[in-house]
# Entry
Amino acid sequence: MPYSNQSGPVRTRRIAPGPAGESSSAGKRALKRAGCGSRGSGRNGADGRTRASACSAADERTLLVDGIEVRLSRKRVKNLNLRISRDGSHVDVSAPSWVSEDEVRGFVRRKEAWIESHLAQAADTPMARASQATPEEVARWREAVSACVPALIEAWEPIMGVRAGKVAYRNMTSRWGSCQPSTGRICINVCLALYPPECLEYVVVHELCHLLERGHGPRFHQLMDAFMPDWKQRRAKLR
# Structure
């Protein structure tokens, strides 16, 4: 199962909607015009697909707030949520559909000092380096990671009682690895070459664990605790 290499620090503000029947958001009106209401969005056929595409386009856009790139997405949330991107290139904001863009801009400006500080920190991380990597660098990382992973899988398979399928290596920006339990296929992020070896081993065990448990629920955590008691400490080094 895929899992995210989680974004940086988060700031949240709880907000209340306007009076019943009113909306302060142009985005909400756009969603209505696009037919993205709860009743229409689930329809089948070409019309349903067209509406779903329009809904997706209306739900996401990029703003520039005092030089800060803000990627705004409309979600079914109660709060305004701000998250620093992993590579320090932008911030992600999720907001209810009825919150106006002016309110989003104001929220970002009030957090500007905090944002600038954490963007600078994020820009000085391996993931920031990976986002600007040349093909030659990625090739070197792939070579290093692919040289280590097969031995790690071979060592852990008998311990965990699993059998991995095909292994792929990719330069990914949003996850450290992924697993398809139905086929046993595992994909590993080549950026792990920039982190301590124990981080790569953690990701390999994490993906192998998905061959026993698809999700990230209590049983998955119990299995990780049993196989690799210090997995949380290893994971922390990837943040």
Observations:
- The longest strand covers residues 68-74.
